[in-house]
Amino acid sequence: MTAPRKPLAKVFADPPHNVDPGLLDVTRIPSHIAVIMDGNGRWAEQQGKPRAAGHKAGIAGVRELIRTCSDIGVDYLTIYSFSTENWNRPRAEVKGLMELFAKTMTMSRVYTIYHCNVKLSVLLGVLRRQGV
């Protein structure tokens, strides 16, 4: 584990009620965190929004996660965002997810994550499916 790159009071400047970032034991921050993105579309539907709005909200969460992990000294962050089961979604939704990924990975976004000490590895094994 790398030491936090920023003071925790700055990383968590506006913590939730009853949460004290000062109590976080920085010696117990893991060196690797893995996240499975799931439920963004369901969340949007529960809010009365289209599923695509949930996927976009998920991207905002990932950006915050990347910044926070970098700031607190997490060395590795793995984000699993598209499983083989996702190919069974409606074709328009799959296409929308792929377009969202492409928009997210513009040069300005890549430049930003580079400055968060992020090395980006994209594993694409099944993009040939469904002609997306």
Entry keywords:
132 residues; mainly alpha; Undecaprenyl pyrophosphate synthetase
Short description:
This protein has 132 residues and is mostly helical. It is built from five helices and two strands. The radius of gyration is 17 Å and the shape is globular.
What is the CATH H-level superfamily? Decaprenyl diphosphate synthase-like
CATH level-3 fold name: Undecaprenyl pyrophosphate synthetase
Task: Name the strands of the widest sheet in spatial order.
Answer: 1-2
Radius of gyration: 17 Å
Q: What level of helicity do the residues show?
A: 40-55%
**Second-tier CATH architecture:** 3-Layer(aba) Sandwich
The N- and C-terminal alpha carbons lie at a distance of 38 Å
Give the CA-based shape. globular
Could you please describe the fold and organization of this structure?
This protein has 132 residues and is mainly α. It is built from five helices and two strands, in the order αβααβαα. Strands 1-2 form a two-stranded parallel ribbon. The radius of gyration is 17 Å and the shape is globular. The model has no long low-confidence stretch (mean pLDDT 80).
